[in-house]
Design a protein that fits this description.
Length: 251
Amino acid sequence: MRELPKRPSLISPKRWEVRRAHYLAVFEKALLLLRTCNELPEDEPNLTRELWFKITTARRELDPEGRFSHPVPQADNLPDPDATEVQSHEFKKPDFQWIHDDDSEADERYIQKSFAIECKRLGAPTKSRWRLNEQYVVGGMNRFRDPRWKYGRGMAEGAMIGFIQNMEFEAISSAIDSDSKRIGFDRISRDPRGWQERSVSRLGNSFRREFPITPFRLFHLWLDIRDVPLKAKRSVHPAPKCAPKRRRTPR
């Protein structure tokens, strides 16, 4: 493993802040667009699938010139430049990755970086006793720390998306904090704006991990869809109807 530079570029962090702000803005707008559907899938894979279509709409509106390219869904982790052969974690698939070239890197093996995003449902345990809030931590957050998954490797930041299907905000937060503490995470801090009903709440936490970059920061975007009807998973079902996008009238 190469030694990371002791003095980071003074230009790159500023460029990254702009890029990261755009990524989060696109996902937040896409989540709000998802709320316009008259009903949503109940299961995580189909919820994430519907979010993908909203991401396309959001990024085209916020970046019409395509300066920031686009994320990719369900793609393998980037190849590990520190390894001499294929690694098992390279086959792991975050829900979304936004890949970009880091111009501050001199070595071409390290130029490509991936801002990873993982999505999970939030709420009460399902009928099959699947504990959604626990899985948000052990099957979501922990994948950014676990060497077997290495989500966000080579980056100092990533994101989690939570679909709040039921339960009160505070009850979910308390359950997340309890499971986080149990496996060694610090509690997730809430944005000063507080909980956002029928909208997106922002949260965040940081932690150390065994692979670069550490410490690592996670942004959390929780979408409240408790008032949106959910439909059970079926083998084939029509696309959900969403509110039409308003077109701007030419001046």
